[in-house]
Predict the structure.
Amino acid sequence: MGSEASSRPGVRVGSTSEFSLFFHVKPGHGEALHQALRELQDAPGYRPGDYEMPIASIHEARFVPFDDDTRLLFATSFDGPWDAYMEDFAAKPLKLFDSIFQHVVGYEGLPSLQAVKDFILSAQQTAGGYARNYGGTVKEIRKAITVNDAFQEVLDDPEAADALQHPALRPLLDVAAD
Amino acid sequence: MNSPTPASPQSPSRNTEPTEPTETTVPLEIDDIQGGALYERPSPYVGTYLLLQIHEPADGRELIRRLLPLLEPGPASTEPRSGAWLTVAFTYEGLTVLGVPQESLDSFAPEFRQGMAARAAELGDVGASSPEHWEKPLGTRDVHIALAALAPDAADLESVVARARRAQEEIPGVEVIWRQDCYQLPTGRTSFGFKDGIGQPAVEGVGTPTTRRGEPPIKAGEFILGYPDETGGLAPMPTPEVLGRNGTYIVFRKLHTRVAAYRQYLRDKARTREEEALLGAKMVGRWQSGAPLVLSPDEDDPELGSDPGRNNDFGYTSDLRGFKCPAGAHARRANPRDSLDHEMSVDVRLHRMIRRGTSYGPMLPEGVLEDDGEDRGIIFVFAGAHLKRQFEFVKTQWLNDGIFIGAPAEKDPLVGATDGSGAFTIPQHPIRRRLPDVPPFVVTRGGEYCFAPGLRALRWLAELT
Ligand code: HEM
């Protein structure tokens, strides 16, 4: 297990907490690991520009092999306190990464919940520093993008300037100039 | 070690597919499990909760001996043998005083060992709900045994209580330190006017009928210790096995409801009686009759509400955006059913609970908007194998928070731990309605985490030295 001081829970900014796992790659599995990562990168949701990862509560995810492929970092930002979701990880998301975790020490298909917990806790390290450039959960950000797209569409309408004169639309007019 | 488990805890069965039935079904030892958790008592009923303090461990054990023949496992008989259906449970302090060895005490769930009062900050029991304001002796080290007695009518109940009194005179080392009467109305309705107790998990191997077609029963190990659960393994079970097996954790909370304030709030936010009823339903996810919004979005349907074959037979996938039932409604928060499945972040089956709540205090007469000063509300009772991932998860992640629905500024509009600054959003065409600053309608008066052992375990406790 990781030392109590550096482990659990992640640093939280607003609704979101950082979550980083540091693994040891099984000896000789470096190339296979890279192959699994390339396959993940080709999967729907992970292709550059897809923006629809299967797990709806993470902002982004990265897998970073380092130290000559002897180590692997998995780093993400999670909406909510991730430790409350430990059992849920075991049930669903961890399975998505099965072909990657095959190549790290301590992952034997995670036969039991205790094995999953031990696996995660032994790899988790809490950040020494963590900051975010925007607030909001993934769901709120997605909603905000949808709303902004709709707003831009309104602004493209030749009638928009007149329509936005209504007092109820004042906050929108205030952000319409650029 | 949790030894004789026919299904291997190593079984990888369901980590992939939460709904697929598992390989083995382990028969439940129904005869050893206290009936109150698994089986509903016939409604209507009246009841009383007694909290006892053990001054003399030997007398505490004597009490258990005398209770044992009165406990009836299995489905509720229409005529309870002793006049009342009894359930007995212990706090951590209670087990300690009875003489349970330290090693065994240490094997209980950490939240149980801490007790509910110590969990107040996590649970949102702050401000008016904080333990310093709790009704004494709730949340103190004096509460050792919790005894629930439910009876078909008041006369039966009184005779049971009278007999218990006499028995107690012969065992003076056990003192009744709190009594709370409760009841269930024939309509099943509680103080805010809503029928309650509808949404319950079907438990595998118990034989109670499934009320939601298409949803496989939840593994018995989610509720009773010693059986495979939804993870394919076993819930951590207290040792020795004789003590842990067939037991269940019980959460019991006395929740005061501010009914007049709630009614006044609805009145203020609605123009007509119909709007009032709709707003009330949007907050709960069901109409007062129990009819689910998803099945009857525009008006109450009392026939649907009272039909057990239909009133729980629904999911939310046809209403992901919440136009019928808001994502923030109490019942949808407390059990999001299939609405989060596509998000992959959460497995709803890991966060279910059996509820055995009852009403206390007189109902506020219909139409009254002025507070009459009476204490009324719900004795919320949970039964499950996991205090943390069932009760505490639902309370903290789903009721007291809104991150999971993308609304961190919102809490459960009816029961969320709120300082009155939370909002409630009702999706509707053409424009969503957002109610800012929903005031608190529920105040925690106190509660306890308890453990309800199986019958063999009770015998073991009675024989401790
Ligand atoms: C005074 C406080 C409360 C009141 C008045 C209340 C009322 C209700 C009502 C009217 C329903 C809908 C009827 C039904 O499906 O049975 C319901 C459902 C439910 N409540 Fe509560 N409740 C309260 C507190 C709580 C708490 C504290 C929890 C959990 C920590 C909780 C968990 C649930 C669950 C799991 C359901 C069933 C949801 C489903 O399966 O669809 N409730 N409650």
Summary: The domain at 4-123 of chain A is CATH 3.30.70 (Alpha-Beta Plaits). Residues 19 and 76 of chain A are 5 Å apart (CA to CA). Chain A touches chain B through 33 residues (CB under 8 Å). Residues 138-155 of chain A form the longest helix (18 residues).
